[in-house]
Write a structure and sequence with these properties.
This protein is an alpha/beta fold. It contains ten helices and eight strands. It has helices at about 15-35, 50-55, 70-80, 95-105, 125-140, 155-160, 170-180, 195-200, 205-220, 225-235, and strands spanning about 1-10, 40-45, 65, 85-90, 95, 110-120, 150-155, 185-195. The longest helix is centred in the N-terminal third of the chain and has 18 residues, at about 15-35. The two termini are about 30 Å apart.
Length: about 240
């Protein structure tokens, strides 16, 4: 069984070396403990202007360049991947070895289409612990996950549902909803550690409330293109 870890990037030279180095070491350790499990790292770059692609080539020869946008990039990465299972991992997120092992152990069950992990924000601030706890409660209650929770799926099912949609926002939620129509979508108990930089840059309360509003509107039927216009009007980076 082979796992493809697909990472969308855009101007990530400040952290990509550290995160890819850790990921590669984890995958090598996994292979040492169980030769039946194989893996690969795929980087899907959205046209970085810095040294992101150059640094990534030290860790993998599976690199593709695509138009900017997480959904488009992750579809491009999936297109050059070879894994039976696909894990879509944000460039600023880190998953433990036990989490990677968990994918292999659980997803081979026939009724499971995909899943994600519990969220932990890389900060000691109490407010971030509350945000993480709220996100994990939402995931447990409704079986919904954002992209920063490390969405994974069986390859055949990913393509059966059409992959990521070509929409400017909520591509991760859209994929999860379609996976749930095919089979069970699970939240594994392991945590995925994601950077606090988005909240730090945009404001903790503003970012949190904005995200709640966006997903509520999307699930209520508001077009992601309408949401994108609102998002851009507020000065945000759509990627």
């Amino acid at each position: 069984m082979k796992l493809s870890v697909i990472i969308p990037t855009l101007n990530e030279e400040t952290l990509i070396e550290k995160n890819l180095s850790l990921l590669k070491a984890q995958l090598q350790e996994l292979k040492i403990h169980n030769n039946y499990y194989t893996s690969e790292i795929v980087v899907a770059d959205g046209g970085s202007k810095d040294r992101t692609s150059e640094i990534a080539r030290r860790f993998t020869n599976k690199i593709c360049i695509s138009p900017k946008g997480r959904g488009v990039q992750m579809n491009a990465g999936a297109g050059i991947s070879e894994g039976d299972y696909l894990l879509f991992l944000h460039a600023d997120s880190i998953l433990s070895l036990s989490g990677i092992q968990g994918i292999f152990e659980i997803i081979k069950e026939n009724n499971i289409a995909g899943g994600a992990f519990r969220l932990k924000i890389d900060s000691k601030r109490v407010l971030f612990k509350i945000i993480s706890s709220t996100a994990n409660m939402r995931s447990k209650m409704y079986g919904l996950a954002y992209g920063d929770q490390g969405i994974f799926a069986k390859r055949d099912i990913f393509y059966k549902v059409g992959g990521y949609p070509d929409i400017p926002l909520m591509e991760d939620v859209n994929l999860v909803l379609r996976l749930k129509k095919i089979g069970k979508f699970i939240i594994l108990p392991e945590y995925i550690m994601t950077s606090s930089r988005r909240w730090d840059n945009e404001g903790i309360l503003y970012t949190t409330i904005r995200n709640w509003i966006l997903i509520s509107l999307y699930l209520s039927g508001v077009s992601p293109y309408t949401l994108k216009n609102w998002y851009k009007e507020n000065g945000e980076n759509v990627f």
